[in-house]
Design brief:
Helices cover 42% and strands 19% of the residues. It is α/β, with parallel strands linked by helices and 223 residues long. The protein has one domain (10-219): Vaccinia Virus protein VP39 (Rossmann fold, 3-Layer(aba) Sandwich), CATH 3.40.50. The chain has a seven-stranded mixed beta sheet with strand order 3-2-1-4-5-7-6, with helices on both faces. Helix 7 links the parallel strand 4 (137-142) and strand 5 (160-169). Helix 2 (25-35) packs antiparallel against helix 5 (95-108) and helix 6 (121-130) runs parallel beside helix 7. The chain is globular. It starts with 9 loop residues before the first helix and ends with a strand.
Amino acid sequence: MASRTAGLPEELQSFVSSMAYRMSPAEKELRESTAVLPNADYQISPEQGAIIAFLLTVIRARRHLEIGVFTGYSALVAAKVLTESGRVVCCDVDADRMTTARAAWQAAGVAERIDSYVQDGETFLRRLVDSENANTFDSAFVDADKPNFRKYFEYCRVLVRPGGLILVDNLFRQGRITRTVDEMDAGTRVLHDLMHSIKADPELSYCIIPVGDGMIVVRNKRT
């Protein structure tokens, strides 16, 4: 999560943020109300939202999975671009944040396209797998508690269809990913190990997009 792209000079950040995405009044209001919160940096940047929306449009995503909602911006931009009858299925552990997100989705006119649950990521994903949802999602976005990212990614590989996309946020960890492994905190070490395992896996193709706090885009090839 990062409300701006790391390393961009202020004037370029302002330009990118203003030009990256055709933002609706409801989206602008959500971003502005989130910006005053103590943990406002949890919100993804406008340019990251634009990339997510663009990728989902390109693959004609119909069913999108999201782990970690915060105040609802990423799910909102995803819901707007899904194909007809598309659904976003998402979870967050924080009931208050989910209430804020649901109000934003209602204001944006996409609430009927989003199924949201207040639940921890592992329990939620395990329930989806146990309910025969394997290979039923076109895409997934992982943006929750970092120490569990590896678990979330592996669940997403089961749930996302072959050829679908898995997006993993916060690879850079505000620069901490460049430290030695011994110097890394637990969340950064998980991202470090996950990135190396993705690189070594011949079943996967991927790219790193240096937007926000760094996002990994993985094409799921598992059959």
